[in-house]
Amino acid sequence: MKFKYVIPTIEYKDKAIDYIKEFIEYKSDINGSGGLDRYLDNYEGWLEYREESRNHPITDTRVPGEEYFMVNEDDEIIGMCNIRFALNDKLKKLGGHIGYSIRPTKRGNGYNKINLYLALKECDKHGINVVFMDADLNNPASWKTMEALGGVRVKEWYDDERYKTTIVDYNINVKESLEKYKEEYEKYLIKGMVI
């Protein structure tokens, strides 16, 4: 199976809503969706929100960013990724540059590594040299994905404010990762990348 990123459009409305509903059905946390789960009855409103987010100035509550659907050759949404092009103080502590997810029925196939590889390619285009990411220590699928793409654990700490759990922080050198893992992941990409 091969993949590429596409920027959400109205044509993906039914597929996008189906993607989020699968998380709800499987009682799974919804990550990296850019708030789509809050717009199930107003997909058009979410597209407007995402459009406005692209060039949003850095504030205490918002930063500029982009949402991507990771689709396969059949144009099925397999994953999502939210990339923040800059970080405010809040995201420097918790959240970082990238949030990602794979639909519950497609997990366990290594697809999120491809998702992260695609995300790093986008970060490189936007001049992000070192990506900061974090994960719940109890979510090894997420932090092992980071490690698989060269992520280095820089901190482990207890979040007593929001999640009440141990968080692990990672840095990924974007150019080093893309060079090191190019041969491993480029073969899984649909040429043409983001549309």
Brief characterization of the structure:
It is built from six helices and seven strands, in the order βααββαβαβαββα.
Task: Explain what the structure shows.
- The chain is an alpha+beta fold.
- The chain has a single domain (3-128, 175-188), classed as Aminopeptidase (3-Layer(aba) Sandwich).
- Helices cover 33% and strands 25% of the residues.
- The chain has helices at 13-25, 43-53, 89-93, 111-125, 140-148, 174-185, and strands at residues 3-6, 65-72, 77-84, 98-102, 130-136, 152-159, 165-173.
- The chain has a 4-stranded antiparallel sheet, with helices on both faces.
- The mean pLDDT is 96.
Total of DSSP H or I helical runs spanning 4+ residues: 6
The main β sheet shows up as: 4 strands, antiparallel
Oligomer: single chain
* Top CATH class: Alpha Beta
Number of domains: 1
Order of H and E elements = EHHEEHEHEHEEH
Terminal CA distance: 19 Å
Arithmetic mean pLDDT: 96
Radius of gyration: 16 Å
By secondary-structure content and strand pairing, the structural class works out as: alpha+beta
Indicate the CATH architecture. 3-Layer(aba) Sandwich
Strand order of the largest sheet: 1-2-3-4
Task: Give the low-confidence spans.
Answer: none
Question: How much of the polypeptide forms β-strand, as a percent range?
Answer: 25-35%
Give the total of beta strands: 7
Query: Helicity range of the residues?
Result: 25-40%
Give the topology, please.
Layout lengths: L2 E4 L6 H13 L17 H11 L11 E8 L4 E8 L4 H5 L4 E5 L8 H15 L4 E7 L3 H9 L3 E8 L5 E9 H12 L10
Antiparallel strand pairs: 1-2, 2-3, 3-4, 5-7, 6-7
